[in-house]
Structures are given as structure tokens and as C-alpha cells.
Amino acid sequence: MASSAPGAGSGGTRRGDTRPAVVVDPEPFPAPRIAPGVIRDCQVLEGPARPPARWRAFGGRSQESVRWLRCLVSAETGRAYCFTRTLRECIFGVVRHGVTLEKDAGAGGVYRLCPSQPVAIKCVSKQKIEEGRGRLRENPIDELAALQMVGAGGGHQHVQRLLECLEDDEAIYAVSPFYQGGELFAVIEARGGGLPEARARTFFSQILSGLAFMHDRRLCHRDMSLENILVDGQDGVIIDMGMCLRVPLPPALPPSHPDDPETPRVLLRKQGQCGKITYMDPVVLEDKDFDGFAVDMWACGVILFILLAGVPPLELPALTDPRYRMIQAGKLGELMDVWEMRISREAKHLLESLLKAVPEERAKMEEVIRHPWLTG
Q1: Which one in 53, 97, 205, 320 has a CA-CA gap of 20 to 30 Å to 282?
Q2: Where are the domains of the chain?
Q3: Where is this region: Disordered (predicted)?
């Protein structure tokens, strides 16, 4: 159901997007595709696949051993993954590190480790899903559907890939590549300050590229943060779609014309507070109807600020925070001067464009990706 809205967000004179707005409910996600799986012990070969050449010349044999390991196996395809260690706990279960297995040629039902193909397996308890239904903001079933929507057609280099989704009677298992560099937040913490501007630009461009890919598919993330960006080599990868929503097209408008200048803006009906408070859009903190894409852009502004300064621009987006009061008053530039942030004029301008308290005034994705700081 849709209704008209005279404006959005925290008030103020709109100098940006002045189109009328319609308020709608998020579009439901389709049911994700989940294949049957089983947890069982498998025989796994460890050691070199073939003996070194110098051994073979003298009739040497490979130094292999066979171990029984606890594994997740697809009942349909036979693909298998062995569990190695626990990475972290999550609301509905646990994330475990694993290694892909392949059937060993000529060894019957024995598998061989593929150390070059590590995975992260999110093990989600079905009981906890039921216990949290209607009570928690995060929805692990919708998260799987969002990952499959993003991954359709090959996915995107800077958005988490879902390799496989399996289930048994107890749990659902979401298998993704293991991104070995950890959280981007930890990279900043380890430095004890912001990144060089060129390195921050690289990461931010990657984050925007992945997020734009999601927005093009009418998906807003709602929990963008440095903690939800993992580092894979030199790349940043967006993860954790548990609060993702589908943004409908404006009602009764042709799907082929979503960017028509007369097309109303779409606001999502208020969903309660969600996301991390430091990155939260003021509108979400106030629990008002919101522009899902603008919510992500505010969080991107906070991400960029931390990438450059090493600290967030505010603690929470409320008038009780003196730094937020400066941002709301349009004095972010003064705040950056007080902190003696040694960044380029273009970087300051981009931050000021993103960290606008009024969503209608905030820079949109298409404006940000064309900004001189990113293109120059």
C-alpha cells in the first residue's frame, strides 16, 4: 500500500530533490533456493597429490595420510566442505572457516583438501530463526534471497558471493568465499589513523561500485559500515545483507521509466531503528519513513570520513551529540578544520555532500560516482 508524503526526513528546506514522494512497504523477497545437505564425517586425504619428481625417479610414493573430518556435503551435487575453526558467533548461529574438498580420482569415496579454496560457512539455527521471527530486525532468510539476487548473472567483484546454500533438519548453511584480509575497520584500527588519500579513494570507489550494483537491483543494504566491508587482497567486499530491503518502483509507473524527472521518490515505511548507531541515518534513528538509498549514502559518508580521519565524524546522529549539531548546521567543514584533517578540497566537498542531515539534500549515488575526487 502506498501513500503520499509531503516531505521526508528530519525537516529543513529542501534544496536538492524536490520531487513528491510516495510511502510504500518494502517488496517481499522471493524464497531463496536451498538444497539439501548433510553433516557427516568424511575420509580426507592430506599431503601432496603426487610425489615430487625426484622421488618418482626412484619409485618414491607420496607422503599422504587419510583423516576423518567433519564435513558439510551437498546431497544433490556431492560438493563438500570440511570445517576447520570457528570465526565468530552471530545472532542466529555461528560462522565457521572451512576448506573446499574435491573427490580424489581413483580413491573411491575419499576427498582431497583444496587449500586454495577456503570458505566461510554461516551456520544458521532453524530454531533461532523461529525464535527471532517478528522480534529481530535481521532476517537470515531474506539475506540469502538478497545474496542470490545480487549473485544472479555472475554477481559483482565487490559484493559477497554465495557459493552454495544447503540445509538439514537443524540448520541452514550459507557457503561463501573466505576473504582473508578481515574487516576494513580492523585495517584502520591497526594503523591508528586514517589511510593515505589515494588508498582511501581506492577502497571507497570499490565500495561505491558494489553498492551501486545493489541499488541498480533495487536493494538497499541498511547496515553499511567498515565492519561490514571485508578485505580480499587489495579489494573491499560488501557483506552482511541481513537488514537488506527491496525498494519497489513507484506505484502505477512503467518499470522502464524509474529515473524520469517526474517520477515520485519512493520512501519506505518506517521499520524501526536498525544498523550501527555511528553509521545510522538521522531519519532511521528517529524511526520515520525513509529513502533506503539515501540511508546507504549517509553511511557511505561516515565510512569515507573514517577512512580519511581514522575516527567517525559523530557518535550518534542526534542533537545530543555536539558534532552532529555542527553537521546539521552545515558546519562539517569547520569540524574538519578544527581536527586539522589534511585532505584535499575535493575530498572535503564530497564529505560535505554525503553528510547532509536532510536526505533530499544528500548526494545521490550517480552524483557521487561522478565526483571529481573519484574521477580526477
Answers
A1: 205
A2: 3-26+180-375, 35-177
A3: 1-27
Q: Can you read off the three cell numbers belonging to residue 290?
A: 525513509
| Verdict on whether the full-model pTM lies above 0.85 | yes
Q: Characterize 294-304 residue by residue with b for buried, 16 or more Cβ atoms within 10 angstroms of its Cβ, and e for exposed.
A: bbbbbbbbbbb
CATH architecture of 35-177: 2-Layer Sandwich (3.30)
- Per the annotation, the verdict on 232 as an active-site residue is no
Give, for all 376 residues of the chain, the pLDDT tens digit: 555 444 434 333 335 677 788 999 999 999 999 999 999 999 998 766 555 555 445 444 456 788 999 999 999 888 999 999 999 999 999 999 999 999 876 556 799 999 999 999 999 999 999 988 878 788 999 999 999 999 999 999 999 999 999 999 999 999 999 999 999 999 999 999 999 999 999 999 999 999 999 999 999 999 999 999 999 999 999 999 999 999 998 876 555 555 566 678 899 999 999 999 999 999 999 999 999 999 999 999 999 999 999 999 999 999 999 999 999 999 999 999 999 999 999 999 999 999 999 999 999 999 999 999 999 8
* Alpha helices, DSSP H, located in the chain: 53-56, 126-132, 140-151, 184-191, 197-216, 282-285, 292-309, 322-328, 332-338, 345-354, 365-368, 372-375
The DSSP string of 272-323 is ---S-GGG--HHHHTT--B-HHHHHHHHHHHHHHHHHHSS-S-SSSSTTSHH
Topology annotation, domain 3-26+180-375: Transferase(Phosphotransferase); domain 1 (1.10.510)
**116: phi then psi, degrees, rounded to nearest 5:** -80, 0
108: left (phi over 0), alpha (psi -120 to 50) or beta: left
Report the alpha-carbon angle 99-223-35, nearest 5.
40
